[in-house]
Amino acid sequence: MRLTLNGAAVDVEAHPMKRLLDVLREECGLTGTKEGCGEGECGACTVLIDDQPVCACLVPWAHVDGRTVTSIEGLADQHPLQQAFMDEVGAQCGICTPGMILAAIALGPNPSLTKIKEGLAGNLCRCTGYEAIYRAIQSTAPVIPRSAAD
Amino acid sequence: MRTATNALELRRPRTLKEALAMLRDEPTLVPLAGCTDLYVAVNFGTLTDSRFLDLWPLEPLRRISVRDETMVIGALATYTEIIKSRHVRKRLPMLIDSARQIGGPQIQNRGTIGGNIANASPAGDTLPVLSAADAVVVLKNAADERRVAFNDFHTGYRKSVRMPDELIVAVEIPTQHGRQWFRKVGTRAAQAISKVVMAGVRGDQPRIAIGSVAPTIVRARRTEAALAAGASIEDAARILGDEIHPIDDVRSTAEYRRTVTVNLLRRFWTDTASASPSV
After folding, report:
1. CB-based contact (8 Å) between A130 and chain B?
2. Hey, are the CB atoms on A43 and B104 less than 8 Å from each other?
3. Do A94 and A70 form a contact (C-beta atoms < 8 A)?
4. How confident is the model over B40-98, as pLDDT tens digits?
5. CB A53 within 8 A of CB A72
6. Which residues are bridge partners to B107 per DSSP?
7. What does the pLDDT look like over A43-79, one tens digit per residue?
8. In this complex, which of B12, B104, B110 lies closest to A62 when CB atoms are compared?
9. Taking the CB of residue B180, how many other CB atoms lie within 10 A of it?
């Protein structure tokens, strides 16, 4: 089956009902996508299909036929959000972090705090209390320099 | 939990016609689409079925359109597509209110309205909306098409009138007259299954539907009739208390559900009291 995975066209053979999560981790060796609850509650396994966040534990492999899939590896450690999560200590144990970052990317540029909270409503974190995560996402929005604002 | 899928079989039709033919030849095939509910059972090994019919790629079933004053929502329209639809915003805003409270974005991007109906859970969040809106479910098999009033569709807990060779292809929404209202009460705003969910349309004949208080979504017909006849909201609340049959379960207690349901009725009546209709 052919799809675009992290920017590259790939052919991957797997059972059509195998979970996208398992194919990414086992067939593709991309272990950045984590399994939390395995029932669509926690969002740890969030990846983007055609730029929309989904839980990879609830997606049969057949459903990404011809689609564009982005996992955390697709950001190549170069996305400003990744640095912002480190700077603001938006990660502690780290299990939720790849899903948080991908859900945040799907919000587009300059999301309001309300939009951030809604956009991350499907991603649970049991360490940070969320505040540092929200701060990290807000900090990547362009900041108007004080001198320019005055 | 890693899933053993080798014993499973997925049929992958390219068109609705092909899907209906496959289902005619093998009515035990289990239709799947967004998989937000089905894959929970697959993952936890509680699903006994092994052969499935993949409806997800059937794009024409995703359309939302308006024909002769009836809004037609394709069965595969996702909650995200419903939230974004200008037709739904104009004609059935309470459906948007309900779709926005289902799961989180990840679930809204995958879950479909047809799946919510087919799943036949009494806690399905769009279902009270469809009930209060007097929606009509469109079913097709390889030979025929039929329409069933949404309020006659579910016959019991996770049971419906859908025959094994039929697929839900759309849900039709007549023009609504009156102010629409929706409220879900759960443990948390996102990712929580309802303890009680209510939808109402306040017109000359008020329509009130409630989820999670009986084996199926229920219309509060006696309460509606009392309100239409001019009963006070307190009298209506007493009638509603008699009309529902909630149970104790993992998510809530019967007593809590009964109290909240009656409070929701009062809230519905207060919130929709304004003279200017919202639709």
Report:
1. no
2. yes
3. no
4. 988 888 888 999 999 999 999 999 999 999 999 999 999 999 999 999 999 999 999 99
5. no
6. none
7. 999 999 999 999 999 999 999 999 999 999 999 999 9
8. B12
9. 25
Tokens of B171: 């849900």
Question: Can you give the length of chain B in residues?
Answer: 279
**Could you tell me how far CA B127 lies from the centroid of its own chain?**
2
B51 touching A (Cβ < 8 Å)? no
Does A41 contact B at CB distance below 8 Å? yes
Please answer yes or no on whether B56 and A63 come within 8 Å at the CB atom.
Answer: yes
What residues contact residue B258 under an 8 Å CB cut-off, 6+ apart? B213, B241, B244, B246
Distance from CA of A49 to the nearest CA of B (A): 10
- Residues A36, A47: Cα–Cα separation, whole Å: 13
Both structure tokens of A51: 């730029």
Residue of B nearest to A22 (CA): B2
Q: What are the tokens at B140?
A: 């097709």
Nearest by CB: A40 against B6, B12, B107: B107
Q: Does the model's ipTM exceed the 0.95 cut?
A: no
Tokens read off for A53: 């966040």
Those of residues 110-129 in B touching chain A at CB distance below 8 A are: 110
Cα(B232)–Cα(B214) distance, integer angstroms: 25
Q: How far apart are CA B193 and CA B264, in angstroms?
A: 17
